[in-house]
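Appendix B. One record, verbatim.
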Amino acid sequence: MERQLDGSDKSDLYLKFTRQSSDQWEALPSPGKYFLPAVPRKFQYGNIYTQGVIVELSGKVLSDQALADLIVTHGPKAVNYLEGAFVIAVDDSRHGVWCANDPFAAMPLYYKLTSKELVITTRPENLRISSVDELNIPGIIAALSSGYPWGELTLLKEWKVLRPGHVITIDLSNKESVSGYFLPETDENVRGFQTPQEVLEAFDRNLESIASRYKRILIPLSGGVDSRLIAVRCHTLGIPFEAITFVANVPDGDDFDIASRLVKVFGVKHHRWEWNPSVENCVENFKKLCVGTGGMNDAFTSYPDGMSIFAQVASGYDCVLRGDQVFGLGEYSDNVSKSAFQVSINFWDNLDRALKPSYQGVNMEPVFEEQEEISINTTGSEANGWRHTSYRKSRTPRFLLPVGQLQAQHADVNYPFLTREIVGRTCRTEQRLRDGKLIAFETLAAGSPPEISTIPLSNQPTWQRSEPLLNLPARVINEMMDIVRQPNILSEVVDDAAVINAYNAYVNNPGGRGRASFMGSLKQMLKKALPKSLVSAYQDARRQHFKAPPHFVFKRYFAMKVFLNAISEN
């Protein structure tokens, strides 16, 4: 097995397969952004391209020869024997070409599949657009209303994002297919978790496997349950680590204070990651983050430093352990509308108020049903279970993991909760243990020593009003507005002025945002006083008329404009 890499050419995966006229992938230039570059290899039947971390199902390092042997033996089904955060592409004289992402889409795979070609890449910067006709209007509306596009949507019609645990194949007869190879919700051979101790046993095995591969480990530690569970179990198992915690310069957040109490018990070094929006190049940093996530992620306002502090700290470590997980999200809900609301999907808001007239009136319900693979009329346990599935297949890879992907530009990032065993068994765990993420809280309680159990979890937002955008200096907001005002291809679809005016009205209206705290308290009082059936009916009706807040629409639109400016061919 021969690696086609001399160590000096660091690039990200960007490949094209020309149908009918070729039998191999063609490598396209893509300057390396990720810490771990793409690696091309030759094997006896063709070529193998990978990027990211690939290990055996046992957690052991997978050698180049072992990977080639799996592909020789199993062809495209070799993905069933791979673990990690990766993408893989193969041209094989016996089977044709194929590519796949890892079971969790921890590393993204953007693809364009047409009758003429298949183009794939791990970097959104490699997407291209030259005409408004190439914009995907439902994808734009979904991202503006929900903060992330649903399913496999992107901002462009021809480009999609491969769903977690999927493989694309074009066989020797030019027949194409896109199919799932990791579908844990329906795998009856997998037994769900019954007790917190079972979760601990599976989790500890994976942590010990990671520790066997890395010596210096950094844990981004918040005041929440997931990162705490990683740190507690590393401490219990004797795995050396240090911690970094994000802290904002506002009085509301308690993440750093709680994390500081934890690290004193652990006896480890604690790095402070300061949120400082006064940095001179704040907007330029925002722009880099927006481009790096395809203009489709809400998180960029959290990082005015462009993750430079994280990069500086992480450079001293072999591995970063992130707490992204799929244990569950939200309380029990008996209809899809309520479940969708809990994962921030807003299919009833078509953003007509922000769109040019010729693009108004889009019905987003069928778009939602196609992308999320559920009818909006579904009720009962199926509607409740769908929320957990959507959290695994859409919200985690499209909303949460992009932050890890930005960090993966500076470090080797691992996800100890995202293994086939843990995710597979979680997906088969009864719903009552996943509702409210109960199984995670019970596991933390069972796995924490007494001196940890007395330290509370965070119950305050990191930023005032829970949104960093609303805490940015006026200078930064004005710079962002100047970018939104500059016409580009997206301005033909969205009314720039309408977005800005709605934002200004929101932040300057003391009778709106200023009353939020009082109204919130009043609603809580009424919720306790009124019958549950009446409260539920009111909440259902309110969701049907919910509109994405103007400040969210503004920052999401900013991200889209920045990204489309970067990839426009005009």
